[in-house]
From TrEMBL:
Similarity-based family: Belongs to the short-chain dehydrogenases/reductases (SDR) family.
InterPro entries in UniProt: NAD(P)-bd_dom_sf (IPR036291), SDR_fam (IPR002347)
Cross-referenced Pfam families: adh_short (PF00106)
Protein name: Dehydrogenase/reductase 13
UniProt keywords, alphabetically: Oxidoreductase
Coiled-coil ranges from the UniProt annotation: none
Single GO molecular function: oxidoreductase activity
Entries under PANTHER family matching the protein: DEHYDROGENASE_REDUCTASE (SDR FAMILY) MEMBER 13A, DUPLICATE 3, PHOSPHATIDYLINOSITOL-GLYCAN BIOSYNTHESIS CLASS F PROTEIN-RELATED
Length: 318
């Protein structure tokens, strides 16, 4: 019996060491208040996007929940208003899988909202399928949709500066790759359809997020707008809802035990959005509420510039 108790105690200690030492992140310590400021958070009806929107609402911001699903987003807005005591939390329709929807959202926002201080590019997908415009889902939603959205709102961000653009990337960007000939021929970052291809496409889309932020910072140098990309941590969210059922069931026990909850996963996003004094680090990559080094491809300025130019053509900005 004593041996069993020792085994259990050892297992619990191991779990606590791994969870708090590896998986659990650092919290955002910024005391900044946001009364009179406006923030957009994409994909904010659930997960770390909703947790981010809730924190911003508690700080007094007017928060726009930019989401595809009207019913879920309105329910999230109700929850956030109730919990924060802030009635300035509203839903606006945005489907990042449709460039037409992105343009419609931007047009509506610019007509109805006089300010934009924070743009949080949070939404992300992993899984099969294509966007309305024929791009691979991960590339189209995670990168192209946010690329177009940011560019359409950039003038308003500059007018309201100092302002920030925060893009949720991932540590997995290190495994990403950008094959421009393949992108030109297949409108995707990978060729083939399987769970492995979906994973590769996700990693590559996150590399796009890092490179987009790097080039955006270069283009915004000398302005009042700064931008940051980040790894939110290993989070238990709905991101993998596009994966097969058996894979989701396989992951669930491990995820429940070790992954951070959405509130924990929102902390580095909030740090990048709120922390004073990080303006000189525009274009850089954060994790655990601290500056981190990106993978070699994520530091390639020539690659970042080429991706920007290709993205301009694909979204018909140029």
């Amino acid at each position: 019996m004593s041996a069993l108790l020792c085994l259990v105690a050892g297992a619990v200690c191991f779990y606590l060491i791994v969870y708090y030492g590896v998986f659990r992140g650092v919290g955002c310590s910024s005391p900044v208040k946001l009364k009179g400021k406006t923030a957009i958070v994409t994909g904010s009806n659930t997960g770390i996007g909703k947790a981010t929107a809730l924190d911003l609402a508690k700080r007094g911001a007017r928060v726009i929940l930019a989401c595809r699903n009207k019913e879920k987003a309105e329910a999230a807005a109700f929850d956030i208003r109730r919990e924060s005591g802030n009635n300035q939390v509203v839903f606006m329709q945005l489907d990042l899988a449709s460039l037409k929807s992105v343009r419609s959202f931007a047009e509506t926002f610019l007509k109805t909202e006089p300010r934009l201080d924070l743009l949080i590019n949070n939404a992300g997908v992993m899984g099969p399928g294509c966007t309305e415009d024929g791009f691979g889902a991960a590339f189209g939603v995670n990168h192209l949709g946010h690329f177009l959205l940011t560019n359409l709102l950039l003038e308003r961000l500059q007018q309201c500066g100092p302002s920030r653009v925060v893009t949720v990337a991932a540590l997995l960007h290190r495994f990403g790759n950008i094959d421009f000939p393949l992108l030109a021929s297949e409108k995707d970052l990978v060729s083939g359809q399987s769970t492995w291809h979906d994973f590769q496409a996700y990693c590559s889309s996150k590399l796009c997020n890092v490179l987009f932020t790097r080039e955006l910072a270069n283009r915004l140098e000398g302005t009042s707008v700064t931008c940051y990309s980040l790894h939110p941590g290993v989070i238990y969210t709905e991101l993998c809802r596009g994966l097969s059922l058996w894979l989701q069931l396989l992951m669930m026990p491990f995820a429940k035990l070790f992954f951070m909850d959405p509130e924990g996963g929102s902390q580095t996003t909030l740090h990048c959005a709120l922390q004073e004094g990080i303006e000189p680090l525009s274009g850089r990559y954060f994790s655990n509420c601290a500056l981190q080094q990106v993978g070699a491809k994520g530091r390639d300025d020539a690659l970042a510039k080429k991706l920007w130019e290709v993205s301009e053509r694909l979204t018909r900005l140029s």
